[in-house]
Amino acid sequence: MILTISLRDDIHALAVQNEARRRGHQDFHIIECDELSGRQSLSWNSHGGSPTVLRASDGQRVRLEDASLVWWRRVRAAQKDAESRDSTSERNLINNDCRGALTGILCAAFQGEWVSHPEATDRASDKLYQLAVARRNGFRVPRTLVTQSREEVMSFLREVGRVIVKPVVGTSGPLLFMQYLDQPDSIPAPSYEACPAMYQEYIEGDEHIRLNCFGERMYAALLKTETLDWRADLTIPISSWSVPDELAERVTTVLRALGLRMGAIDIKLTPDGEPVWLEVNPQGQFLFLEPLLRLPLAQYFVDFLLSTAGRRSLCHEPDEALPVEEQWLARFPGAERVHPPGSPR
Asked: Which DSSP helix (H) or strand (E) runs through 246?
């Protein structure tokens, strides 16, 4: 059995489920993380005696003990049922406790394979951390400044030349596209002080690579545009791109260091062909490339999930007597020695 944790009507989850079931794998269920409230959606007992049960999108109640893989697709969402509550504190309670219960139950009770583990996914989603890991593992990355100081931004602009700005984390709602910052002194200081932002050197060139990694398999697209953020216009020239072996090895090393089994990676090629790491989304979008590249990416992703679900873990199960950091390293061979969330520093 494969479980996908995602939002209601998530196109990627539905397309992959449809492909799996079309091929006869009926035990592929979606757990809608934004539809837990308002119904009996989950049950767990710390001392056993009853199975751990989750309600799937079709209403079926599935046993977590029967699952061999969890695809940790989309998990941060408000509960639909909480939207009708007038009290902010009630909405917060419902949203926080539904999210906490689902994550906690899965981390406590699930013994199979993750794509990818919540701890690794959360850590790798940190743009600053992943930049540091990529740089330590041989990638060129844009020189980056995170600050709330207008003076520091102006000094950075003088140092690196053209600068772009983008959010550190961002927010739900309309996409916040990165943009050039040519005249930082024209923006009032309080705007900088409102919250930190990422200021990066502009990487010359018009060739962008979207590299989708499903385990050891990689499927890349080359996007040619002078536009800073290609997401705003998918009518640009897009073609399949063969990933050089050396680049594939470097990417694999970074993903292993991050503890990820998949990822959608954005790379920019300089005019002389040097790959520059921009970022990785641990659960990035890939289906939009299917019609553009004429590649059956949903089929390839199902292949990846089924092979991972049928594979015994290559690492030993964590020993509860080991320190937290050693458990982390046992779960993710090749991961960097870092403190996982919640561990003592």
From this structure: helix 245-258
Length of the chain measured in residues: 345
Q: What percent of the chain has pLDDT over 70?
A: 88
259: region left, alpha or beta (phi > 0 left; psi from -120 to 50 alpha): left
Give how far Cα 26 sits from Cα of 40, 133, 209, Å. Answer: 23, 38, 35
What are the domain boundaries of the chain? 2-111, 143-201
Q: How far apart are CA 12 and CA 335, in angstroms?
A: 27
pLDDT digits (tens, 9 = 90+) for 305-339: 999 998 643 333 444 444 434 443 454 455 554 43
Which CATH homologous superfamily contains domain 143-201? ATP-grasp fold, A domain (3.30.1490.20)
Distance CA 191, CA 113 (A): 44
With beta carbons less than 8 A apart as the criterion, state whether 90 and 131 touch: no
pLDDT tens for 242-258 read: 999 999 999 999 999 99
